[in-house]
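question for whoever is on the cluster today: can someone run the full assembly for these? two chains, 473 residues total. i dont have access anymore since they changed the login thing
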Amino acid sequence: MIVVENLYKSFESAEVLKGISTTFEKGKTNLIIGQSGSGKTVFLKCLLGLFPYESGSISYNGKIYNDLSQSEQRKLRSKIGMVFQGGALFDSMTIGENVKFPLRMFSKKNNSEMEDRVHAVLKRVKLEDAYKKFPSEASGGMQKRVAIARAIVNNPSFLFCDEPNSGLDPKTAIVIDNLIQEITSEFNITTVINSHDMNSVMEIGQKIVFLKDGHKAWEGSNENIFKTDNEAVTNFVYSSELFRKVRRMYNEGL
Amino acid sequence: MRGLILRDIDDLVIGSFGIVAFISFFVGGVVTIQTALNINNPLIPQYLVGFATRQSVILEFAPTFISIIMAGKVGSFITSSIGTMRVTEQIDALEVMGINSINYLVFPKTIALLLYPFLISIAMFLGVLGGMAACYYGGFTSVSDYIWGVQLDFIPFHLVYAFVKTFVFAFLLATIPSYHGYFMKGGALEVGKASTTAFVWTSVAIILSNYIITQLILS
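^ ran it for u. tokens below:
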């Protein structure tokens, strides 16, 4: 579980996060949503420890990140899996080597055990035949699945995903969403996803935090996001013609 | 880490062997031709051509000017490869995993370039050899005179001086381009700009440190 309390972050004079407090629950897919420029990516990077923040606190399973020593912070980070927006796969390594990388760095397994684990994880994301391919030879959807495989290979306690569906067709996007949700419940990890894709919200949004101008404007689940009368949320959700049409049909009883 | 160092030795040192050999051989030949053509006075002995070529190649051409060329080749490779990793969030991925990215990316390159003096010693040999080939094929002076000149008044400390500065240049070649790649911001265009900036600053640092080392060691 990740608990965020009163988080503030600014760049020079621009205040980006303005006192965000929320909880990301274990075994659930937690989504951070909001318009571009609302502070989602900065919030995610603060959670990952990539950006320092001015005030507030972030605690992982009860341990406040900033109170940990540098070596404890690195140890905690080895328990974090991250799926970057572009995949961030290492170009010079094959897909198998990419997935094996966290194991080589942190695991005490011998080589054959590591290989077994890599093959098992690649099988889990349905890429068992891609071991020897390079990332440049893989499609966007495959790269995302490799990134997920790399993120979960070391049995992380926390999984972060930055817009995992961006650049994917709707069908592949659903495959990725389902994969993330299955992994979250299968390994009972805390998953935080940064997204502005309403399909993801509907599919896997067990807990949703809506950001607007650096504030937490609303939080809830995919079941009640369509029932809320919060103006910021409804403006965001019904900015799509498709959703406006669905609402009209719903209201007309069709 | 051993694998990374070996890969960087291959990329940075062994991969530069061809261009260094080519340039050294022909520039050594040109130095010999220029020297021979500028000696008009019959009182000046012909073996001076070999002597002048050796001194030029060992003291300046091989360590300094090959390093400037390497600032373009190796330096831009380092900046663009690290810069691309920054742009594509690969460095963030390393940090999130709890890996010290500077150590992971820069340290192997610095260690790999400890073999850079090996490349410079080859440049020295091929530069002198290129001069001899020019004498043989161009007839500017006899090969025996050239070899005599190459051996004349050889001061071993000059090699110490050349290799001291080569080690300094190797450190500059590894660190300055890495810095520009690691701390760059932006996209593909900025990677190109960072490579150019890295080349300029590495060259400036090499020229200035060359001056300072020469002043300190030889004066």
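summary bc i know u wont read the tokens: The radius of gyration of chain B is 20 Å. Chain B has nine helices and no strands.
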